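Repro:
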Amino acid sequence: MNHPGGEAREDVYGTAPLVTGDAVVLDLRPAGFATRAAAIALDVILQLILLVALVAATTWISTGVDLAATMAFYTATMVLIIVGYPTAFETISRGRSLGKLALGLRVVGTDGSPVRFRQALARALAAFVEIWLTTGVIALFTSMVNRDGRRVGDFIAGTMVVEERAGRRREEFVAMPPHLAEWAAHAELSRLTPETSASARQYVMRYTELAEHTRHEMGLRLADAVAAQISPPPPPGTAPPHFLAAVLAERRRRHTLDAWLDGPPGPGPAGPAHGRP
């Protein structure tokens, strides 16, 4: 890879600027088989309830109505429930059906991008065969024989189901790489946005969990995004994970120091007495 000589900060790592959507790409831990099966079961139960309600409603309104019109209505509504429900929910909610939402899962592209309508539709159409027509046997088999638990619909759509981590936030310490401590101490970080910092933190904390290609490409993109917001650029040859860790560690050190200098909020100056005898 050819790296420019450092005139333009945004080209320090020679990749395009970061585009993260809602940062799903940074956390690609495949969903566990049991969790994913439970989410599917919840969705199927909901769809079965809707189908039973459909049959009851169709039976009630079909009296005196042409049989062909009744069957056409029944078929159209059944397709809407089996195919339309997951397609609509996964498209609108960026990868979550009600079952996935309850279990903390999300469908994303294999590159971590938010799921698109055509991908959600492909998954739903495949599910009609591999889940509904075969009572889940095909989906069960394919999910068990591949590492990421992908079913046929995922392979067709280019998607995978991952665990959400938004509900498990905790303060995690990012260590300062010793060889970058001096550079970081003199770096200007005031222009680093909270969004970019949060994305970098997720990447650093989940570094060992990411696939090799995702780890490399996302590291380069994040490093460029951060380098565009700070100065000076990192020393030549700095690896993206080390660069990001140095920025995060220094940023935390400065915030901690500022908080310590400000001190805990005290009672403040005494105001005018209220109700003094």
